[in-house]
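Fold this sequence, please.
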Amino acid sequence: MLKVERKPSFDTDVLMQGVFKWLVRDLRTNLSSFDFYATEEALFDKGVASYRNREVKTYFLSPYYYFKARYQMDNLFKRYRFASDVYTNAELEKITCDKFLSTQVRIASKKKLSFRAFSVLHEARLIIKEILGDFDEKEHHERCKFGKRASVGCPASMSYLDVRLAGPITGSADHIGWFSDHLKEDKILREAIQMCSDSEPSFALCNELTLTNVPKSYKSLRSIMPNTTIGSFYTYGLGKMIEKRLSKVGLHIPSLQERHKGYVKRYSRTRSHVTADLSAASDSFTVELINRLLPRPWFNKINFGRIKRVKIKKKTYHLESFMTMGIGFTFQLQTLCFYALLKGIEKLSGCKGKISVYGDDLIYPKRMHNYVKSIFEDLGFILNSDKTFVFEEFRESCGSDCYCGIDVRPFQPEGSHQLLSSRLYNSLLYKTINGLLLRWSEEEIPGTLEFLYSEVLRVSPQILQVPPSFPDYSGVKVHEPKMDNNSFWSKISYNENLSIRFDFLKAHPRDRFVLKQIAYYWDTLRSSDDESVDSVDTTISGEYLDRFFRIWDILPNDIAQKRYDDTSESRSMRWIRDERRPYPIRSKLTGQRYRKLRAVVAEKQARESFIRQTGSVPAWT
């Protein structure tokens, strides 16, 4: 009988249990405390459920190093789910859906607006009016763009731009009418849709959105609501318009996270400001509240085409929330609204100080806190007490955790229980090693590192070492290459030009061939966020586009690359050599000979694969 050899599978739960055990031992040694985390370790040995359900005591008055060690262990598995965790997938789904529905019931209950809240709303509206200015219809049309994730009628596995445009294109009745008018102005988009669908644009009416839950932590999921295809296009443009205007008041969203990290470090030491977080922040905005905050022209444009029903577990409900995660303007609009509300409270209370907002991450003066808490409750918002810090020497915002001015951000592996192949397991080990070394030195966690290095050598003959700028999965990041030829570390060599050669793991995405490239050509023209696409010729005739994209049997190399390389934003489509035709072919357009190219995009939702590759860098750091 023929024996089939199976590929080895490595259990991620076993790895995480090992990391827990060795990390406790290392930190226990550093603290010279034999009972550090002993009770929690005993509960972990009994089972994950016993460990999760333990009572977590506060330790805010502890010495710095003890706080960092304890905080690391308490939050180690916050984003990782074991096979035998406290909640099953079905239970998490129910908890998340019930929470969303309870929020809808809460904000639907009409509550008389207090005078203090009315006064703050009046000030906030004036602030928002000054920030937004007049609504520019032309600017909105120029900034609209299709999303890269799932939309109604286009699942995530097939959310390629050429597939999305092939239709039918989903939208509300208002959005479909608006989009039809938009196509009269955007002739290239209309041609792209015609080529992708081989017909005139076709639409599908959508009157409800579906609530979808995605992983967040071991005890909850994150609710998002994928928009319609036209809805995502329309709202993306609105979000970009708001983002541009926020930059004028110092809230530059692309760099705001890093600025918040600096604030967190400062205010954990001075305790002069609060870092606050809200529960169900975006879901708590109602139509009435947004109407009170926004100038009427902006409200009409943002409210235009809004879908007011949501489908949850085959049941349809009236949607009380004005916006949810998954809508293109949600993050920018809630940033604007919370900022204006805090500035309104600052003006009326006289409590001056730094105010900054990133989504629902709020920073404001400590003297304002009682006003913020009361007025936000009047408006239907709930401060998350677990993530709001007022009097403690601890502050947290935008992925930064600081205690007494010192970074104590813990390492938190993400994911859930899996059985991995050796190559995937190897990449996970490198991610784990680099994540730990980002927060702890080699001298602090020697046992944990020795355990992880031994796991690497179980699946690989060598431990790969890479420069600090490389991805976490590519190898162990070291500031100086280890040159000991007798060790298990991979060898480092030098080329004739003195560049450094080394081996590393490289993510190897699968490619999907694109036959209708015009969709990506149009997207490239729309991708410039600096409002300048002068480097790309946007006046190409329809006849040329037809010849260039549809007759791609012989594709000119220089023209194809120039159309995509001249833009400032990296593209999702790229060109690779056609191995079926290794010899140069004469172009029908230019008469010259070129290498045959094929257009490809990365395959979506394909399982990660990694290959070992040799590369070189001119300098290691």
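Residues 480 and 620 are 7 Å apart (CA to CA). The first strand starts at residue 10 and ends at 11.
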